[in-house]
Amino acid sequence: MDPSVISIFGGEPLLHPRIGKVLDAIRKYWPNAQLRLITNGYLLKKYDPEMWFRFGALEMQVSVHRQDHEALITNEIKKIVKCREDWQAKRTSADGHKQLELHNKDLSIYKSKFKRFVMPYRLENGELKPFKSNPKKAHSICGSPDVPILYKNKLYKCAPLPNILELDKGNHYKYEGIESTGDVKTLVNNINKPESVCAMCPESIDHSIDHFDKENVRVK
Length: 220
Known about the structure:
Number of strands: 12
Shape: globular
Number of helices: 5
Strand content: 25-35%
Radius of gyration: 18 Å
Largest sheet: 6 strands, mixed
Order of helices and strands: EHEEHEEEEEEHEEHHE
């Protein structure tokens, strides 16, 4: 397998006590892959800012989910930026999502403010349940239609799947992750294509939450 992009996200990847060694290992075995770390930024304070420049062309996406916490996260980003002088900056905005891009030869930082998040499940009497949508329509509004995920040594069609399956415990979802000895080729061929499992998600953005609503984003 020779991926062009490897993304590390969660949950929250900075909770991993050996995240630096994980990134080192990925860079060792896939030296040409684009390495991407997606974090909410709260735990950047635990790490030496200089560390993030050692992995070679790392992309760090810092997602801001609470407007009242943005200053805290921005301060941690500033500590990283101060480690180097040769930065290029750019601001973008689309569909309520705002992004500040900071680019250095060894590190790119994307501070992103996502206004809307499409819920990949519905809640009924406290249980997660699939929407049973039209797979093509659901796939057409998917925020990450081409991002399979490796979780506990199994590959899944998309990022929400393994977490939903663990919470569901086989009650309403029947998808199975693919092991290294399984049909990986079919999964790869179906990246960015609608499949029956896409029916679990809604086919309308009406089923969205506001990322900046304090009731939707709780920080412990």
